[in-house]
């Protein structure tokens, strides 16, 4: 394992050495309690820096600031065009600091800096630009109505879409900046105000983003950023009576807690949750693209993607060939610190995830699964795990049913299409799926039969700001990105005038 890491940019070292406060009402402040918590470098397990630790009292202040900013002040008086320009400006600022964000993501999350440069940061920039364009296009309808009990009356009826209000946003650690963008983009385009809680494992890029939000000129209180733990800051935000909507990305388990917490004031809820996405390889698939394709589907971002292709179904005649191809691919992956430019796969994000993923692999072995490749920790420092392919799995095993959120794929053969569709759908999740075949008619028939929010054909992990993303079943409520996301941040008002 190589350890030749790049020197950090001066801007990154300077940022890390500044005190990490929280952004409330346009000001950087310490936690009310004065407490801080550490954020760790997953490649070494060492503390990077301390972060102000928000809890209920800080959330109260942040929500009050967001409420004021929503109801009075300059934000609600801005024209849609002015709002869009601010969002676009934020995108420009992120782009100007692309390298800095790539290094921060790599340092805090462990992902390869080379990946963050071409994926995480540019996708975040693009999301903000896409949403900036929508700010001027949030339209209603005029509706011809025919009220039967007022014969002869003439009405003008129309709808307007209004911002939903103060939004609490709780995000995970797997794509820290991008998840902040997915959440903030539609909220700001529609004129909402926000309290954002980044994941405790990866708060750095959201705090740097907060600095750029101030620099872009968003009015005070429009975006408040409160780092802290889920059980304290997150739970307070989800339950807050002055919050109109909570948007959450994370585990299905916590998603259910959010729903319960939100019930106090029946705030609107959108959820982007877990997955156990199937990759399906048909016998006519082009193996030169399918083998790296299904391997990347699971190993990209170290399997820490809610849409990771963590179940691999291959039609029987091709099974051995595909599995050995994926195993060879896995063996060749360069695992190392994210800040080493040759690294293709970094460490898992935390000690907890490291234990969890290794625990799942052990449970798989205990239930009879075998490793075609991988299955172990790498080294004794940092949270590295071998890219792993499990075979001899059956559909009732925990490793096949539950989300591992690590670089572990379970491969199973199948004999006909009905069987593979049944197996693919036999899961509580329904986030994504992929089909690999040259037979487009079969591909579209399978796409139609799969209960999943995204179906990729001959590709995987293709994201675009214009393409809605979200889950069927226990993978969530609502969609991120695309114009579908805007619906979750607006209320529809019907206005009816008797002329
Ligand atoms: P993961 O399992 O991927 O770490 P989690 O669902 O635990 O994901 O966390 C995602 C986000 O939810 C994080 O920001 C975390 O702090 C937050 N969170 C965790 N528990 C709660 C909770 N009880 N209420 C609100 N937010 C929570």
General description of the model:
The protein is an alpha/beta fold and 499 residues long. Helix content is 39%, strand content 20%. The protein is built from 17 helices and 21 strands. It has helices at 10-17, 56-71, 80-96, 98-109, 113-118, 120-134, 176-190, 204-216, 230-239, 252-262, 287-299, 319-332, 351-366, 398-401, 417-425, 440-449, 484-487; strands spanning 22-24, 27-29, 36-41, 46-52, 155-163, 166-170, 193-197, 223-225, 245-249, 268-272, 278-281, 311-315, 370-373, 388-391, 408-414, 429-430, 432-436, 454-457, 472-473, 476-477, 490-498. Strands 13-14-15-12-11-17-18 form a 7-stranded mixed sheet, sandwiched between helices. The chain has a 6-stranded mixed sheet with strand order 8-7-6-9-10-20, sandwiched between helices. Strands 1-2 form a two-stranded antiparallel sheet. A hairpin with a 2-residue loop joins strand 1 (22-24) and strand 2 (27-29). Helix 11 crosses helix 12 (319-332). The N and C termini lie far apart (76 Å). The model has no long low-confidence stretch (mean pLDDT 98). The structure holds adenosine-5'-diphosphate. The site of adenosine-5'-diphosphate (ADP) has 17 residues, from helix 9 and helix 10.
